């Protein structure tokens, strides 16, 4: 009887722990060690300075989306096909319009533009709404922005 109970508890732990997003997020090594994210963080939403709070779970979702869809070209924040336009914070800030806030990053992903904003670019991967919802793409933007702000070597040659 006791063994049965122990098995049951173990089974519940094995199933529940890794699938619980809050626990998975605070256990994620990259988020915790390199981005120092263990609780919700405020990120700049627009150029006017408005901010919005993003949870560790949201950033973890963003990281997973990035790994699945962007990593091929942007490993460690670099841009392999065009190293001049990396995802480093300085580069994001220097784009026109600046891409160091959530709304502008989302706008870029919905319709990628060249660095000076003059025309569309076909080099980066466009993310239509049929692929990622507003919620998902914001998580992705929140991850990119946080990595650019905090990950050592992000977007430089030192990854
Ligand atoms: C096939 C390769 C490729 C993939 C996949 C890709 N990108 Fe890009 N990305 C590029 C290239 C090349 C540029 C530079 C484009 C330009 O300036 O014309 C770029 C530019 C960017 C920029 C602007 C950087 C800056 O300094 O202004 C961001 C942000 C970005 N990509 C995010 C993403 C995200 C998020 C994903 C995943 C959804 C993604 N990219 C997928 C190739 C790629």
Automatic annotation (TrEMBL):
SUPFAM superfamilies: Cytochrome c (SSF46626). Residues 57-148 form the Cytochrome c domain. It is a peripheral membrane protein. Its main location: membrane. One of its GO terms (cellular component) is photosystem II. Its cofactor is heme c. InterPro entries: Cyt_c-like_dom (IPR009056), Cyt_c-like_dom_sf (IPR036909), Cytochrom_C550 (IPR029490), PsbV_cyt_c550-like (IPR016003). It is found in: Membrane. GO terms for molecular function: electron transfer activity; heme binding; iron ion binding. Residues 1-24 form the signal peptide. One of its GO terms (biological process) is photosynthesis. Keywords: Electron transport, Heme, Iron, Membrane, Metal-binding, Photosynthesis, Photosystem II, Signal, Transport. Belongs to the cytochrome c family. PsbV subfamily. This is Cytochrome C550.
